[in-house]
Amino acid sequence: MRLGERLCITHRGSMLGQLEEHDLVETGIYKNDRFTPLASTELPVHREIYKRTSASAIVHAHPAYAVALSFCEKEIVPCDMEGMLLLSRVPVLAKKGPVAPGEMAEEIAEALTKHKVVMVRGHGSFAVGQLLEEAYYYTTTLEESCRVLYLLKMLQIKVS
Fold first, then answer.
1. Number of alpha helices (DSSP H) and beta strands (DSSP E) in the chain
2. Which end of the chain has less Cβ packing within 10 Å, N or C?
3. DSSP state at residue 98
4. Cβ pair 27, 33 in contact under 8 A
5. 130 touches 57 (CB < 8 A)
6. CA-CA distance, 24 to 31, in Å (whole number)?
7. Computed over its alpha carbons, how large is the radius of gyration of the chain?
8. Could you give the domains of the chain?
């Protein structure tokens, strides 16, 4: 969450399925402080997103179906009604070789100036909103759309 010129992010190595208040770290968007080393390894990406967008909240996740489809798609185009209306198209960002945590910050932030959610090939999603619930909603909508796309691929049904 954006807190003026500061942000709140998960603690490095925290269990995302079981977050508690002590799993959160507050640090600067523009400057390091004594809490910066405790922040998630994705801190550089979050900082860049806050610098380039008006987002107040970011959700970074590793949704399984979306990650799987990111290996074979350059963009994810939902075919279910909710995904089409809410997301339209989701770019899949990639670079040669594996992407380390915190890498591609500029590319991710730039894509989020035009999209509500983006995928990093083989890694995960980044979604933005004015509230955490909004960014989470985009994340879950992406995953549900990818689940439908995956099932259609398994059934060998082409969607245009």
1. 5, 8
2. C
3. P
4. yes
5. yes
6. 18
7. 16
8. 2-154 (3.40.225.10)
Polymer length in residues for the chain: 160
Would you call 92 helix, strand, or coil by DSSP? strand
Nearest CA to 116 out of 49, 30, 69 is that of: 49
What are 73's two structure tokens? 């798609």
Q: How many CA atoms lie within 13 A of 111 on its CB side?
A: 21
* Residue pair 138/79 in contact by the 8 Å Cβ criterion: no
Query: Measured at the alpha carbon of residue 150, what is the angle toward residues 147 and 155, in degrees to the nearest 5?
Result: 125
Query: What are 104-144's pLDDT values in tens digits?
Result: 999 999 999 999 999 999 999 999 999 999 999 999 999 99
